[in-house]
Design a protein that fits this description.
Strand order of the largest sheet of chain A: 1-7-6-5-4-2-3
Largest sheet of chain A: 7 strands, mixed
Oligomer: heterodimer
Number of helices of chain A: 17
Number of helices of chain B: 16
Strand content of chain B: 5-15%
Order of helices and strands of chain A: HHHHHEHEHEHEHEHEHEHHHHEEHEEH
Low-confidence stretches of chain A: 333-337
Radius of gyration of chain B: 24 Å
Shape of chain A: globular
Largest interface: A-B, 157 and 156 residues
Number of strands of chain B: 11
């Protein structure tokens, strides 16, 4: 037959592979050691994007060196660095080098972790990593789970399990509950599953932005009286807005009394299970029927790395299993007792799955639980420091105090003008982006525009915070002066 | 509060470099020796049981020991889906450039969900999606997004069909597919809230394709019953046999009946890069939505799926929600905010690997690599025919051939049994691996030949080995 042309087999020579690989490692090492020296956000340059946009399908290949150079120029210079020590916006995602290398290994060996007989070692590592998470959050022995892409899919999957187990798959008249501080992926998840918008009741949060148990109880009673079928409470452990944690133990009591499913979206906050703050902040989390936990948010993994845990591991295959003839041989060769739960393609929405568990497992092996715990606790301490610096500066109203490594605040103009306070705070985000030293984002809380500092990056230093607070004060004062000039 | 590097989960630059170089060396070594290794490993259940007992690591361990452990206990205990003699299921042959792109995406932790946080990444994804659109022949104005794989691509497309075609009203909606359609389609519809009875799995024709007369009859009968037919799911390369449903005729039918045409081209759509594939997939570009896995036949490391839809605005119409935290971002570049184009908000930068592979190898080389799959399957078919002890059940199509052992006595039960047992024997032997399936009453073996690194010798030796193994099995019987 024909070709032995390595290019047509999409092969590089060993020398090329090694040279390209080392070059990429060098790039990453240089970056990882020097993140703090990059601007945290970039000014947009539309010309560059037009150039990318117009590129035709490349008929011929290009030297990998040139392609890497194009990647650096067109992608790297335009992205926000979510792992920058002064990126405090949204939810920062600070990674670690060991896990990045684990991703390279998972990709390089192309490990397919879906069907146990095809990747026994991988299936076992995933099962083990899940059992570690289970132990850390205190769910019972029979709990299980799997790694998924992120909070969106973990919540969607948890709610699919709730529908299957709690409702027997019948959605008619079913109602789920959450607070108005719940992440939008909860309502999107339910909508994707086929629930109508009115089948989710978003209850107005209490003054601390938590789901109020009494109101929830009232809503459930009302719905029952109206012939509806309440089935699920979606609580949040660490809201994106403020870090608020819904009263999990009280909600678990209520769900038990009412026979409801308790889903906990701990995408952001569940990682605090590792810390000394656990008993005070997350009591009751172990009573969830299903729990979302993003390791790429606060366990320092590169995206994507999230876990869904459920109280009874058989619920997953009861929800997601389908059969296929072309897979029956492999299934027949699985080990009977453990095979089923190690066939991860039947535990969630994906069949082909990359080996996400590897990075979590490898970084925990290399750094150990103690270091991981300290790194998470540091987020709490940094947010407290930020709060105290903001209070001392005298220019800010603390809207929600430091909780789960998030503090929110609003500019306090000298004359106490509410509208001006909101406006200055609103514009501060753009001013910070233009300045480039640090970046934080705003949100709206009960009529107030507030700024959020999320301090879950363990490489943030106290001096990063001090300088950030100083710069915000300067930028806010400038904005206030500008707005007053425009008015007057 | 100055923490030590370990407490902030850091390694020194020198350590990172040593670690990184070692990972590269390990991968290069793997790629250079892959074809000499066993294709599948036997289970060592005791060792696996031991691994499961590993307690939470309170203290850390040196990274090189963790890497050794990974190589020994994990990598070496995985079947090699990218091995040139792995012919089972759908082989997943990746490429080194794609792998390095994954390393970059992870190392820089690129989050491609909102345009403002990484306009270069968003534009690059749009460009790469558009390249795929051109390859499959969809109209300009179509758009899409990268997703994890076929499961989510099909789920996403069917969610769009529900939103656009049914305006979100599931009641009475009916979708159609053949009995050869991948199970992820029925799982996706179930996840979307459809009852099992809302998907009609029609018996396929003798070529294992969706039967047009049966489809027409089912639609008419459902309409008479007051139901709302809304979607036909066609396969462009069924996993069992590589069969391609009659796409162009289905597109005509869907147009006439005002139905949505979704094509599951997870496996087969990249064949549009070859002449043979273009003939087989005629009409593909007329789909309303299409699932394509670049990790199947475009040689990317998993995960690299893609969903394409005829109107790019359909994705945000289906998936957009608002939030206070992300409000500023929504104002600009709607179609570049990939967090609103599908079911995920936080998203890995999957487009990078396909873009980088296209750039480095060029379309011509990639097309050649796809074409090699067709040639390899044809060669396998002809060798099997020559050997005389096999019945070809479905000829080479889309790089897949299926066949069954033919005993001298023409005993169908024996033919099925020996073919079934052959899978286990191949696993034990470890030189090559193919998997079985059932086609009507026949147990068949499948060889899926889409790995461009498979050589003619690999195929010859595999066919010879299977001949020896079935002869042994036949004697024992």
């Amino acid at each position: 037959m024909r070709n032995a042309n390595p290019r047509d087999q999409l092969k590089l020579s060993p020398n090329d592979m090694r040279e390209m690989g080392y070059r990429i490692i060098d790039m990453l090492v240089d970056y990882t050691g020097a993140q703090a020296q990059f601007p945290v956000t970039r000014a947009l340059d539309h010309a560059t994007f037009e150039e990318i946009l117009d590129e035709p399908l490349p008929e011929e290949g290009t030297d990998w060196q040139d392609v890497l150079e194009q990647f650096e120029r067109q992608v790297l210079t335009t992205i926000d660095h979510l792992d920058h020590p002064r990126f405090f916006a949204y939810i920062p995602s600070s990674s670690n080098f060991v896990s990045a290398m684990a991703d390279a290994l998972a990709s390089g060996y192309n490990i397919f972790n879906a069907l146990y007989p095809l990747g026994t070692g991988a299936a076992v590592v995933e099962r083990l990593a899940i059992s570690w998470l289970r132990e850390l959050c205190g769910m019972p022995e029979e709990a299980g789970g799997l790694f998924v892409s992120g909070g969106s899919v973990a919540n969607l999957s948890g709610l699919a399990v709730a529908r299957q187990i709690q409702l027997g798959g019948d959605m008619r008249d079913a109602v789920a509950y959450c607070s108005d501080q719940a992440h939008f992926v909860i309502s999107r998840g339910l909508r994707i599953l086929g629930f109508a918008p009115e089948q989710l009741r978003e209850i107005h949060a209490d003054k601390d932005f938590r789901l109020p148990v009494a109101e929830l109880e009232r809503a459930i009673a009302e719905d029952k009286a109206a012939g509806k079928r309440p089935f699920c409470v979606a609580a949040t452990a660490g809201t994106t807005n403020t870090g608020a944690v819904d009263p999990l133990a009280d909600l678990a009591d209520l769900c038990e009394r009412e026979g409801l499913w308790l889903h906990v979206d701990g995408a952001y906050g569940a990682s605090a299970c590792l810390t000394q703050y656990r008993s005070q902040a997350l009591a009751g989390i172990e009573r969830a029927h299903s729990l979302t936990w993003d390791a790429h948010k606060w366990m320092f993994q590169p995206v994507e790395c999230s876990a869904l845990l459920v109280r009874d591991r058989h619920w997953l295959s009861a929800t997601f299993k389908e059969t296929a003839h072309f897979l029956t041989d492999a299934e027949a060769h699985s080990k009977e007792e453990v095979g089923e739960e190690l066939n991860f393609m039947y535990q969630g929405i994906q069949l082909t799955r990359y080996f996400r568990a590897l990075k979590f497992w490898m970084s925990l092996k290399v750094f150990g639980l103690g270091a991981m715990r300290r790194a998470i606790e540091r987020g709490f301490e940094l947010a407290e420091l930020a709060e105290s610096l903001l209070r001392k500066a005298g220019k800010w109203e603390i809207v929600t105090p430091a909780q789960m490594a998030i503090v929110t605040f609003r500019y306090k103009p000298a004359d106490g003008d509410e509208a001006l306070a909101n406006q200055v705070t609103e514009e501060l985000q753009g001013a910070m982006a233009a300045n480039g030293f640090a970046f934080a984002s705003t949100t709206h809380l009960a009529g107030k525009t507030v700024m959020r500092l999320v301090t879950n990056n363990p490489r943030t230093s106290p001096s990063d915070l001090r300088q950030t607070v100083q710069i915000m004060a300067r930028l806010a004062a400038e904005l206030e002066a500008k707005l007053k000039r425009a008015e007057g | 509060m100055r923490p030590s590097p370990r407490q902030t989960l850091e390694l020194s630059p020198a350590e990172m470099r040593r670690f990184g170089y070692r990972v590269i060396d390990q991968l290069v070594d793997y790629y250079e020796t892959r074809s000499e290794r066993r294709v599948a490993e036997a289970l060592d259940e005791e060792a696996l049981e031991m691994m499961l007992q590993d307690p939470l690591p309170r203290a850390g361990m040196p990274w090189d020991e963790a890497l050794d452990y990974f190589e020994r206990e994990v990598a070496d205990r995985s079947n090699r889906v990218d091995h040139p003699r792995f012919f089972a299921y759908i082989p997943l042959a990746n490429n080194f450039v794609g792998v390095m792109a994954d390393a970059l995406a992870a190392g820089y932790n690129i989050f491609n969900a909102v345009w403002l946080q990484g306009p270069g990444a968003a534009q690059l994804e749009r460009l790469t999606v558009d390249w795929l659109r051109q390859i499959v022949g969809m109209r300009a104005g179509a758009g899409g997004a990268f997703v994890s794989g076929g499961s989510v691509a099909n789920l996403t497309a069917l969610a769009v069909a529900r939103r656009i075609q049914l305006e979100g009203e599931i009641q009475g909606g009916v979708a159609y597919c053949s009995d050869q359609t991948h199970f992820v389609v029925s799982r996706a519809l179930r996840l979307l809230g459809f009852a099992p009875g809302q998907l009609r799995k029609l018996p396929s024709d003798e070529g294992f394709r969706l039967s047009l007369p049966r489809l027409r009859a089912a639609i008419a009968s459902d309409r008479r019953a007051g139901l709302r037919p809304f979607c036909v799911v066609a396969s462009a390369g069924a996993t069992n046999t590589g069969a391609v449903d009659p796409l162009d005729e289905l597109a005509d039918l869907c147009q006439a009946e005002n139905l949505w045409l979704h094509v599951d081209g997870a496996y087969g759509a990249p064949a549009m890069l070859t002449d043979q594939g273009k003939r087989a997939l005629h009409g593909l570009g007329r789909a309303h939505s299409l699932a394509l896995d670049a990790h199947k036949w475009l040689f990317q490391p998993i995960e690299c799926g893609c969903v394409l839809v005829r109107e790019k605005g359909w994705l945000p119409r289906t998936f957009k929600e608002t939030s206070a935290v992300l409000k500023d971002i929504e104002l600009e570049g709607e179609e570049l905010n990939y967090g609103y184009q599908g079911i995920q908000l936080t998203r890995q930068f999957r487009a990078l690997k396909l873009w980088m592979s296209f750039k480095v190898f060029g379309l011509d080389a990639i097309s050649e690599a796809v074409a090699a799959g067709f040639h390899n399957a044809e060669m396998a078919e002809s060798l099997l025919r020559d050997a005389g002890c096999w019945e070809i059940v479905t000829p080479a199509q889309m790089a897949i051939v299926t066949f069954r052992y033919r005993p001298r006595t023409a005993d169908a039960a024996l033919a099925n049994q020996i073919t079934h047992e052959l899978v286990g024997r191949l696993l034990e032997d470890g030189y090559a691996f193919a998997s079985g399936t059932r086609l009507r009453d026949k147990t068949v073996l499948r060889m899926c030949c889409n790995n461009p690194r498979t050589t003619p010798e690999d195929i010859k030796e595999t066919v010879a080995l299977m001949g020896r193994l079935v002869a042994e099995l036949d004697i024992v019987q």
